[in-house]
Amino acid sequence: MNIHLQDSHPDVKACVEQALKTCTSNGSMRNGGSAPNLRRLTSGTGSLALFYVSAEPSVVIKIGANDVMREETEFFEAARVFTKSAPLIDFPVIYCRSVDRSIGWFAMEAGKDVTIENDLYDDKGELRDGWVETLNRFADCMSPVYRDTLTTEAWNLDRYHLEGRTRALLTDNQAMRINAARIAGLPPFTDIVNSRVAINGRALGSPLGMLDEAVSRMRGTTAPCSFIHGDLQLRNVIPSEQHEGFLLIDPRASWEGKAPHVAFHGSPLYDAANVLHSVAGLSPILIKKERNQAAALSALSLDRSRLVLDLDDRYFASTDAAIEMAEECVATMLPASLLDHDWRIRFYLYAANSCFGWLRSQTVVSELATWALIYATGIRMLGRAAR
Question: CB of 247 within 8 A of CB of 203?
Answer without folding.
Answer: no
